[in-house]
Amino acid sequence: MTELMLLVAGLIAGTINTLAGGGSFVLFPALILAGVPPVIANASNTYASFPGYASGAVGFWREIAANRDKLIPYSIASLVFGYAGAELLLHVSNETFVLVVPWLLLFAVVLFAFGGRINTFVRAKAGDGGRGRHVGAALLLVLLAAICVYGGFFNAGLGVLLLAFLALAGFADIHAMNGLKLWISTLVALVCVIRFAFSGAIDWYHGSIALVGVTIGGYLAARVAKRIPQRLIRGLVIVYGLALTCWFFWSAYFS
Known about the structure:
Blueprint: H1 2-19, H2 24-33, H3 38-59, H4 61-65, H5 68-90, H6 94-126, H7 137-153, H8 158-168, H9 174-199, H10 204-224, H11 230-253
């Protein structure tokens, strides 16, 4: 039953990631329900999500290659600070992580719910003339570094933060932004999976079952994406995410 639950959770998470994003809200708690300790569940969630990022980046390769001048600094920041986030996770006890998770989930739900408005606001502040381009490159890289540390520590909501960063950096083409978002997410996940693997922080058995589900769910959802209202899926994910956040707050602080 545990294996079936993880496979179904992976199918749902992969479907949600393709249609609207937010699959971590399903997969992470499923791994915990399967008996995986919180820190290892978080690391295993990143492992299971990695193929989706990589395949998405391949699909946007033309847009990514068109911005090759950004790839070296963005890639270095992704690898170095994604690793820092993974290292931070490995030095947090399960007891401490349980107390932090509700706040991370709340942050991720807010990002997910208001991500479109956040990105619109940031793009407006950047201005048509690319005011964001006048912000020092060093400051932008500091922001990217902080986002990658967050992504290495806790994956949910990373895409929204990256889109906001890219808008601030002066990007306006949503396809280029999605491509670079997936490129950065892939590198962050890659270095995290390598670090988690060497430290023994991945539950390969349960994580691999979830990975199979995520991959199949993502593929199937891509074939029927136009038939399912994205707004409906997003609304359901937000309601579920809020309920999940309340449950984690109750479990961590009141039970």
